[in-house]
Amino acid sequence: MKVLLINPPRENEIIGNNPTIIEEERGFNPPLGLLYIASCLEKHSFYDVKVIDSQVEQLSYSELKAAVAAYNPDIVGLTAMTMTLIDVYKTVDLVKEADSSTRVVLGGPHVNLFPEETMANPKVDYLVLGEGEYTFKKLLDAIDGFERLSQISGVVFRNEKKIFLTDTPPYIEDLNVIPFPARHLVPYQKYSSLLAERDPVTT
């Protein structure tokens, strides 16, 4: 199974009235949530994992669509925040345009607050609630079986047009069990900050 994790473009982000210099020079932070999920998949599965950070690569939507089509993933995962929801949904649209059989999984703060509203978008196939490092992998393992899906904590899915939310997953108490982010899957030299714009940074 080929898994593509995407950090969408930032063309429609809802932001405050920051000074222009901050918006132009704020740099880019690595998408750590996606990189943690990627590292867990690399360590605990045989799935083929790729990460596209559209922001640091400065990809347009047409360029992103071409990259998605070239990789031809079975699963696409994205993090959804309310302020980036427009770009998330535009990315979901282009994924389905590239191949309507590709399954789309969303996680992140927005889907935790508004799971049913998010699933109202028929192009979104699954949600991962809570900490997704291991839930996402369990979802992939069970994605074709309704009975198994219903037994995984922290997932939202459809069956015959009805939306199902499973129970709340526990927090990962021992952070040492999580492998370090898969920074090798992104161009880490390109990440910078307004506070250190001449040097690569990470978080």
Automatic annotation (TrEMBL):
The keyword DNA damage does not apply. The keyword Repressor does not apply. GO terms for molecular function: cobalamin binding; iron-sulfur cluster binding; metal ion binding. Its cofactor is [4Fe-4S] cluster. Residues 17-150 form the B12-binding domain. InterPro entries: BchE-like, Cobalamin-bd, Cobalamin-bd_sf. Pfam families: B12-binding (PF02310). Keywords: Iron, Iron-sulfur, Metal-binding, S-adenosyl-L-methionine. This is B12-binding domain-containing protein.
